[in-house]
């Protein structure tokens, strides 16, 4: 346990005393320090607060030097998007002088593998803070809870914002991401028409929330009719097959919303196969470099781009702020935004 985590134990005891939390009198010098560590972290996280990262940096200032701290990130497969989150995490940790380690898994649905790696990070790797991108909203709670009890901050990067006290979420609001896509399509189809959606894995919080957000958006635009919606489980080949079937059954589809860019490439192939490239609106999600190239080439209309580098960097900041005893919001917002032919040249390289 580093000096920073012991410092948090002391802060936890002070906070506990101030708010008269019963049974939290132990300190690092004796008794059960885990009780104070947990109450310290939970007390430092305002679960109901949401604040954008730029404002938070202005208010809290740059985190303390990370020397002597080890930060661990348990990610998903290193699909291009998650690789950018990883890069943002590692670059910021290195910039602030912290030791860091990343753990990835072999499959987007490998919940057990991700859980095992998260447990190992906490129990065996000497991590002072755990950053993770859970496959589902609660899949890593059994690791987060005891980590927080040991004074180890738990930071969620993108996707699965949970409700466990003491956790911090860094990322966009996926409901707004889906709604943004619906609003964008509505702007391009003032006379309305039939639309379709290709979904990610049904167990993924991102898939669930993007889908619900898209449907919420369509409710504001009753001249748009959702005629087909099906999961391709983040797989481009499946997405092509599904989109081909959708176009056969519903030849008047005017727009597709696809819940990630990888699947959107499959849908683009189906649209091309139907000889309707440029006629059917195609909106992806994430803003990965290949998606921007497809927009430039006219094969995709737009993508609701996220900011994975910023998400990873903000997670590092949150971890170090908590270890230094600073209060942080439960949600550090990194908003998504539309990239289309009007602004794609501004984001030609990498990801923000």
CATH overall fold name of the largest domain: Rossmann fold
Shape: elongated
Q: Please list the strands of the largest sheet in the order they lie side by side.
A: 1-12-6-5-4-2-3
End-to-end gap: 34 Å
Q: How many domains in all?
A: 2
Taking all residues together, what is the mean pLDDT?
89
Residue share in β-strands: 15-25%
CATH level-two architecture of the largest domain = 3-Layer(aba) Sandwich
Amount of helix: 40-55%
CATH classification, class level of the largest domain:
Alpha Beta
Low-confidence spans: pLDDT under 50, at least 5 residues? 1-35
Question: Major β-sheet, in short?
Answer: 7 strands, parallel
Task: Describe it.
The structure is a single chain. With 352 residues, the protein is α/β, with parallel strands linked by helices. The protein has 2 domains: 49-171 and 309-334, Rossmann fold; 174-305, Rossmann fold. Helices cover 44% and strands 20% of the residues. It is built from 12 helices and 13 strands. The strands form 2 sheets. A 7-stranded parallel beta sheet has the order 1-12-6-5-4-2-3, with helices on both faces. The chain has a 6-stranded mixed beta sheet with strand order 8-7-9-10-11-13, with helices on both faces. β10 (281-286), α11 (289-296) and β11 form a beta-alpha-beta unit. The two termini are 34 Å apart.
Task: Please specify the SSE layout and strand pairing.
Elements: H1 3-18, H2 33-44, E1 45-52, H3 53-60, E2 70-74, H4 80-95, E3 99-103, H5 111-124, E4 129-132, H6 141-149, E5 154-157, E6 167-171, H7 174-188, E7 193-199, H8 205-219, E8 224-231, H9 236-249, E9 253-258, H10 261-273, E10 281-286, H11 289-296, E11 302-305, H12 308-323, E12 328-333, E13 337-340
Parallel strand pairs: 1-12, 2-3, 2-4, 4-5, 5-6, 6-12, 7-8, 7-9, 9-10, 10-11
Antiparallel strand pairs: 11-13
Helix pairs in contact: 1-2, 4-12, 7-8, 9-10
